[in-house]
Write a structure and sequence with these properties.
By secondary structure, this protein is an alpha+beta fold. Helix content is 32%, strand content 25%. It is built from 4 helices and 10 strands; from the N terminus they run ααβααβββββββββ.
Length: 241
Amino acid sequence: MNSSDKLRAYKNSNSPFVSLFWWTLIILSLTALAILSWTSSIYIFSNPQEKTPYKILTKLGRLEPIQKFSKSAPPQSKIGYRSARELLESDFSNLTGIHLTYQNEQLLKNYIQNYKDENSIYYIKGDFIVTDIRQLNDTDKITKGLAIKAVSKNFNRTEIIILLPSNDSTPKAKIIGQEISLKSNHFSSIVHVSVDKKEKTIFTAIPIVYGPFKIKDSIVVNLAPPEVLNIEGYWPIEFKK
């Protein structure tokens, strides 16, 4: 038997093993792809507050619209309605760095998911003095409506940014220096917490029952849930200095 015949005989004798190797490789590759697809899907559906998952879920129409809650059946909070001071001293004290980042991710996630998890909401109430006001725009996470910045009347270590989403044209209210109140029937939910350079805690809140919101006697804003968020926007929103 010459060398070419020997080589042919060797290849023929090993062909079943070669086929088995390639089939095994293909099956393992497909299994790995299936596992990767499955874990990716779980991650996307579990983290709608992140930019890429939110965009994917929005494009696929897999996110429920942000809900307008009724005053008779709002999301339940295990701690009820708290003042800015009570929230700071009990639930948001000493939150910095990675812990604050994680808390804000959960606050946004709960808002996007319409507070489907029990007791996942924090309500804020109290009296505040307005320090600034501006229209929301395309750079903000909520792009239509008003934003009001105010300092707590009874606890100057905290400020609040009240977001008033609205599809209507909002009035240019001259209310700086005036008092604004968040009452229990506003159901104002905390969606973000931050600390500024002066170590003052800033709460961002949205009245989640929407509907008419009286800024002052002559100014009422008709609130409506945002149809979609600009997930690229940042909280807290900025005001011109």
